[in-house]
Amino acid sequence: MFFLLADNQDITRAGLAYVLGGMNASFQPVTDKAGLIEQLKNNAQAAVFIDYTLFDINDADELIILSLRFPEVRWILFSDELSSDFIRRVVVSSSMVSVVMKDSPMNEIRDCIKAVIAQQRYICQQATEQLIAPAAIPTERFNLTKTETEILKDIALGLTTKEIAERRFSSFHTVNTHRKNIFRKLNVNNAHEATKYALRAGLVDAAEYYI
Question: CB count, 10 Å around CB of 16?
Answer without folding.
Answer: 22
